[in-house]
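Reply to dn_fold:

You asked what the input looked like. This is it:
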Amino acid sequence: MAENAVTPGSRSGAAPAHARGPFVLDIRSLGRRPGTMTEVHQTVRTPERLGVEMIGIPADSEVDLDLRLESVSEGVLITGTVCGETQGQCARCLEPVDGTVTVFLTELYAYPNSETEQTSDDDEVHRIVDDRVDLEQAIIDAVALELPMSPLCREDCPGLCSVCGVPLDGAESGHGHELIDPRWAGLVDKFGDLGDGTTTTSSDQGGSDDRGRTRGVQ
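and this is what came back:
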């Protein structure tokens, strides 16, 4: 860590409630001297899950911060990477999907009463509060944009059988189901198989034959 490296939270005494999060950095060592620079290399734990519905960084997981903080005329420019291990489910077969997500940050935090702070809406720029920057929202947004909305265990995952719900990847070859047209179900129950005994499987998709049997689907 650099000589002027900032540390999470307050350096002395109890920090205010808004400054106690793991992604809050104390920037007092930078001062307001443009060109002053320092680095942060540390691992923190996220109190909340970060990600999207099907995949994300679980709560209480380690998140690695590798950042550079640079004082500029209007605030503090933060650049670098944030990395964490992800857990989720395949959107097709619902099997577990694990991985790693790395996001790149380039965020300006405006000084109080700076021109940028005074001329920007709340949702247009981050703000420095009590000589601290809170990276949480920037990290939440970046992780959500980086992760896939529909993660897959592999690109050609066949998913689940639409009839019985078993994973098709582990099902026996030719897995399928013979579906009876409900209009003929009573006759089938009474007289048995009315045809030649052959079974229509999911390889023949859609429609029904003249014996009232709907061709199976996977």
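The first strand starts at residue 24 and ends at 26.
Hope that clears it up.
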